[in-house]
Design goal:
By secondary structure, the chain is an alpha+beta fold. 54% of the residues lie in helices and 17% in strands. The strands form 3 sheets. The chain has a 5-stranded antiparallel beta sheet. A 5-stranded mixed beta sheet has the order 7-9-10-12-11, covered by helices on one side. Strands 6-8 form a two-stranded antiparallel sheet. The chain starts with 9 loop residues before the first helix and ends in a 5-residue tail after the last strand. Bound molecules: adenosine-5'-diphosphate and magnesium ion.
C-alpha cells in the first residue's frame, strides 16, 4: 500500500522499537540479576571459609603446640573431607609449612599472597588452584608457638555456575525480545486495524455514494477525531455536490423552455407561407427568448464568479439617496407600465461596490414592480444603524407564503413559476442579491406580512479590507 522511498511502515517501526526496548530492558535486568547472584555466591563462599577458619583456629589451640599440629594432621584433614574445593595450610612463625591439605599434589599454598588484614576474606589466585577466595589468621598456641592458618576456597564452581547463568540470560534476552517483537507486532496490527478500516471506507466513497460516512465506532479517540473531521468534510462536499447537481438540472430545465419556444414557434411559422408581419413577429419573439437565455447565462456566469470569489469587490463610499434616485428613474418606464409609483427616502452613507450595489437593488426593485398592486407605491429607503448601512425595498402586494420565504434566495427558485412562465425571470434574481451581500460580508433579509413585502440589505459599516 505504501510507495516511495521516503515512506515507511509504522507497524514495522513499532515492532522494531518494541524489540529494541525489550533487548535493553531484559539485558539490564539480566546484568543486575547476574551481579546480585555473583555477589551472593561470593558472600556464601566467604562465610564458609570464615567459619572454617575459626574452627581450625580452635583445633590448633586444642593441639596446644606447633609440633602437635604437625604430628597430628588427621583431625584437620577430616574436617575438610566434606568440603571439596577448600584448601588449608598452617605455617609456623618462620613461614614453614606445618600442615597442608589439598586434593591435588600440584597445589602449593606456600606461595599464596597474604593480604594485610587477617580474618577478612580477599580475592587470591594460588598456583594450581586459580581464582579463589582466601582468608587467614594468626594465632598464638598455649605453648607460645605462633601459627598462621590460611584457608582457600576455589571460585571454579561459582564461575561455572555463573557462566551457565550468563548463557541463560542471553537466551532469555533473545527469546524475550523476539516474543515482545511478535506480540508487539500483533498488538500494533490490531491497534492499526481502525486505520486500515478508515482507508477502506474512504476508498469506497465516490460521487454516487457521498452520503456514506466513516464509522469507527469503538476505535481510538484520535482516529474518531479524524473520522469526525472527514465526515464533516463529506457533509460539506455532499451539500455542495447536491447543490451543484440541482443547479445543473435546474439550468438544463430552464434553458430548455426558451429553446423549445424558439423551435416550436419557428416550426409553426415555417409550416406554410406567412406575411412579412408574421415573420417579423416570429423574429421578435425569438429575439426575446434569446435575450432571456442570454440574461440567464450572464446571471449564471456572475454567480459562478462570485462562488469562486474571483469577483473583486471595489469598495467606495457614496450616498445611498442619489444612487436610489438614479435607479428609480431608470425603472420609471416599467413602473408606469405597472401603474406603480416609486418613492425614495432616507440618506445613508454606504460603503460598497457601486456596480454590485446597483445590481442588487435593481433585482429587488424589479421584483417589487412585478408583485406590486397597481396604484400602489414602491418605497426605496436607506438609513444608518450602528453596525450597518441599511437599504430597504418595500412594495404592496400579495405576501410571500411562509413556506417559501426560506427558499426564495435559492437559485432557480420561483414561488409561482407559471405566473412568469414566459417572462424574463429565471429565479436567479434573489440568489444574485444574496451572493452580492455575501461578497460585502453583509446580509439580506425579507419580511412579508399582510400586503407588504420588504427586502432589507445590510452593508457592514466597517468593511474588512
Ligand atoms: N417583492 C416580492 N413580493 C412577492 N414575492 C416576491 C417578491 N420578490 C421575490 N418574490 C418571490 O421570490 C421568488 C424568487 O425571486 P427571484 O429570485 O428574483 O426570481 P424571479 O424574479 O426570477 O422569479 C419569486 O419567484 C417570487 O415568487
Ligand atoms: Mg426577480
Amino acid at each position: 500500500m505504501t510507495t516511495g522511498t521516503s515512506s515507511y511502515s509504522l507497524l514495522k517501526r513499532l515492532t522494531l522499537a518494541f524489540s529494541t526496548v525489550a533487548i535493553l530492558v531484559f539485558a539490564l535486568t539480566g546484568a543486575f540479576l547476574y551481579h546480585a547472584l555473583s555477589t551472593e555466591l561470593q558472600r556464601r563462599d566467604d562465610i564458609e571459609i570464615s567459619g572454617k577458619l575459626s574452627q581450625f583456629l580452635q583445633l590448633a589451640r586444642d593441639a596446644r603446640s606447633a609440633q602437635a599440629v604437625r604430628n597430628n594432621p588427621s583431625v584437620f584433614h577430616e574436617v575438610l573431607l566434606s568440603h571439596p574445593g577448600v584448601y588449608l595450610a598452617i605455617f609456623d612463625r618462620q613461614g614453614a609449612v606445618l600442615l597442608q591439605h589439598s586434593d591435588r599434589s600440584s597445589v602449593d599454598l606456600t606461595a599464596t599472597p597474604v593480604a594485610h588484614r587477617p580474618n577478612a576474606p580477599y580475592a587470591c589466585e594460588p598456583p594450581g588452584i586459580g581464582p579463589s577466595r582466601c582468608v587467614f589468621a594468626d594465632e598464638t598456641l598455649p605453648s607460645g608457638d605462633s601459627v598462621r592458618v590460611l584457608l582457600v576456597r576455589t571460585a571454579a564452581d561459582r564461575q561455572s555456575l555463573l557462566e551457565g547463568y550468563r548463557i541463560d540470560i542471553w537466551l532469555a534476552v533473545a527469546v524475550g525480545a523476539a516474543l515482545v517483537g511478535a506480540l508487539g507486532y500483533a498488538v500494533a496490527r490490531r491497534g492499526f486495524s481502525p486505520v486500515r478500516s478508515i482507508g477502506r471506507q474512504t476508498s469506497r466513497i465516490e460521487a454516487h455514494n457521498l452520503s456514506e460516512r466513516l464509522d469507527i465506532e469503538g476505535g481510538p479517540i484520535e482516529l474518531q477525531d479524524i473520522a469526525f473531521s472527514v465526515n464533516r468534510m463529506l457533509d460539506r462536499l455532499e451539500r455542495a455536490f447536491v447543490r451543484l447537481s440541482q443547479f445543473s438540472s435546474d439550468l438544463a430545465h430552464d434553458m430548455r423552455t426558451p429553446l423549445a419556444n424558439v423551435i416550436s414557434s419557428s416550426q409553426v411559422t415555417l409550416s406554410r407561407t406567412r406575411t412579412t408581419d408574421e415573420y417579423e413577429a416570429l423574429i421578435d419573439s425569438n429575439i426575446e427568448e434569446c435575450e432571456r437565455l442570454q440574461r440567464m447565462i450572464e446571471s449564471m456566469l456572475f454567480l459562478a464568479r462570485t462562488d469562486s470569489a474571483q469577483q473583486l469587490v471595489k469598495f467606495a463610499e457614496f450616498d445611498a439617496q442619489s444612487e436610489l434616485r438614479r435607479l428609480a428613474s431608470y425603472f420609471q418606464g416599467l413602473a408606469e407600465e405597472a401603474g406603480v409609483q416609486i418613492a425614495v427616502e432616507g440618506n445613508a452613507r454606504i460603503s460598497a461596490d457601486g456596480t454590485l450595489f446597483r445590481r442588487a437593488v435593481s433585482n429587488l426593485i424589479s421584483n417589487a414592480l412585478d408583485h406590486a398592486f397597481a396604484g400602489s407605491s414602491v418605497e426605496l429607503s436607506s438609513f444608518d444603524s450602528p453596525e450597518y448601512a441599511v437599504v430597504e425595498v418595500t412594495n404592496q402586494g400579495h405576501a410571500i407564503a411562509p413556506e417559501h420565504v426560506d427558499r426564495i434566495f435559492e437559485r432557480f427558485y420561483r414561488v409561482d413559476a407559471s405566473r412568469h412562465g414566459s417572462a424574463r425571470n429565471a429565479g436567479l434574481g434573489l440568489a444574485i442579491v444574496k451572493s452580492i451581500m455575501e461578497l460585502h460580508r453583509g446580509k439580506v433579509d425579507v419580511a412579508s406580512y399582510g400586503e407588504r413585502t420588504t427586502f432589507t440589505l445590510y452593508f457592514p459599516r466597517s468593511v474588512p479590507v
